[in-house]
Each structure stands twice: as structure tokens, then as C-alpha cells.
Design brief:
The protein contains two helices and twelve strands. The protein is mainly beta and 175 residues long. Strand 7 and strand 8 form a beta hairpin. The longest helix has 7 residues.
Length: 175
């Protein structure tokens, strides 16, 4: 399994017990849907290694307490501390309406209500305080905020995201 075929689930942040249980901070709005997992991929070096789960349960709000089959003592838990966990993309619950996964909209066209086709989404920039679509149109790069006010419709069939950009924003890049 390659990382490109998977999505990031979370990171092992601490040991929970002397029997090797670990706490994983997961990156999701719905942690409860991952409570009954049977296995995950743990990033070790440059490889994704399958780890099987004896028991997995929610711990507080965004933590999973995981008892792995392969990790039964503190030294084994130490070896995976800080490791990232991944699951195959096929395990993502489907989204509908205007909700989408970042990886799924790469290559979609941004269609503005005023300017029409304003570019193709190259990537999503989520490192700043505001998440941005990074789009390209005729060798020009556009940065469009990804907000509910701007996104009016996600059309998966035509691979188009309809947007209503603030006045002057598109002209800044394409004008």
C-alpha cells in the first residue's frame, strides 16, 4: 500500500498503559466512526506497515485508545510513538452536497458566477489560517478562499466547483 492510496488518520501521541496501549490523536470531525477498526497502516520509515487491532475505543473527544495485536509492552509502544496512521482511501465515508475531501477535488474546475472558468484546482493550501484553493488558469496562479460564503455548489459529475468570489479577487489574478 502506497501513501497516495491512503488518507492520514492521525498520529500516535502517547502511551496509555504498561501493556502497550497507545493514544492516537485523529484528524476528523467524526472520531466515533473509527472506533471499530480492525487494522490500520502505521508509517515506519518510508513504509506503511499493517497493524492489527485487538481493541479500539474513543478516549475523550479526539483521541482513540488502541490496543494493537503487535504491541504488548511499553518498549513496543515506544517504537511507534509519534508514528502517523493511515487508512485506504476506499474507507473514507462518502460525502455529499457541498462537502468534499481535499484530495477528491484536485483537477476540478473552479467556475465563478461572474468570470466563468477561473482555473483548475492544483492543490489545497491548508497551512495558513484560511484554507485556499490553489488554481491555475493560463499559467497564472489563483488563490481562492475555501469558505461556505464563496463555494455555492460542488458538482461531482462535471468535476466543477461553483464559486461566488468577492468583487475584485479574480481581477487581481487574471486582470
Amino acid at each position: 500500500m502506497q501513501k497516495e492510496d491512503c488518507f492520514y488518520l492521525g498520529r500516535v501521541v502517547s502511551k496509555y498503559s504498561f501493556k502497550g496501549e497507545v493514544l492516537v490523536k485523529i484528524d476528523t470531525d467524526e472520531p466515533e466512526i473509527y472506533e471499530n477498526m480492525e487494522s490500520v497502516f502505521v508509517s515506519i520509515g518510508n513504509n506503511l506497515v499493517p497493524f492489527f487491532i485487538d481493541r479500539c475505543r474513543l478516549h475523550k473527544s479526539t483521541l482513540l485508545r488502541i490496543d494493537f495485536e503487535e504491541v504488548k509492552d511499553e518498549s513496543a509502544a515506544d517504537r511507534i510513538l509519534g508514528s502517523e496512521l493511515y487508512l485506504p482511501l476506499t474507507m473514507l465515508p462518502p460525502l455529499s452536497g457541498n462537502k468534499f475531501y481535499f484530495h477528491e477535488v484536485i483537477g476540478f474546475t473552479l467556475m465563478d458566477e461572474v468570470h466563468g472558468d477561473i482555473g483548475t484546482i492544483q492543490s489545497i493550501n491548508d497551512s495558513a489560517s484560511q484554507i485556499l484553493f490553489e488554481a491555475k488558469k493560463d499559467e497564472k496562479e489563483l488563490l481562492i478562499p475555501m469558505t461556505d460564503d464563496i463555494i455555492t455548489k460542488v458538482d461531482r459529475e462535471t468535476k466543477t466547483i461553483h464559486v461566488n468570489c468577492p468583487e475584485g479577487l479574480v481581477d487581481l489574478y487574471l486582470g
